[in-house]
Design brief:
The protein has about 110 residues and is α+β, with helices and mostly antiparallel strands. It has a single domain (about 5-105), classed as Outer Surface Protein A, domain 3. The protein has three helices and seven strands, in the order ββββαααβββ. The protein is globular and about 35 Å long. The mean pLDDT is about 85.
């Protein structure tokens, strides 16, 4: 069960989602890979401004509720979630486009 009302990705993490591979999380002291397509829908929603219910609603077009809840639970269990809102500008997301193979940092 997700206990954080408005979850955000921990600001010390660099997150990269690769379609078909999973979510890669890297910090100065650790790295983690979490498999699952739900992370692609979930990652941009972990802003610390959306409730879990709002996250479920917005991700519903890409994956089912159980997948999103499981992905949130994995992130929480691994210590990758914090209570929002995050510190502005502290999170970096890296996306690899499966079409153009270009990387962009948001």
């Amino acid at each position: 069960m997700v206990t954080i009302q408005k979850p955000a990705l921990a600001p010390h993490l660099l997150a990269r989602y690769l379609p078909g591979e999973g979510l890669f999380l890297v910090s100065e002291h650790q790295s983690d890979v979490l498999a699952g397509e739900a992370f692609g829908a979930l990652l941009p929603l972990l802003t610390g401004t959306l409730s879990v219910d709002e996250i479920l609603d917005r991700a519903a077009a890409q994956c089912d509720e159980a997948q999103v809840l499981y992905a949130l639970e994995l992130l929480g269990t691994h210590g990758h979630l914090v209570k929002g809102p995050p510190v502005p500008g502290s999170q970096k997301f890296v996306w690899l486009s499966p079409i153009t193979n270009e990387t962009s940092i948001c």
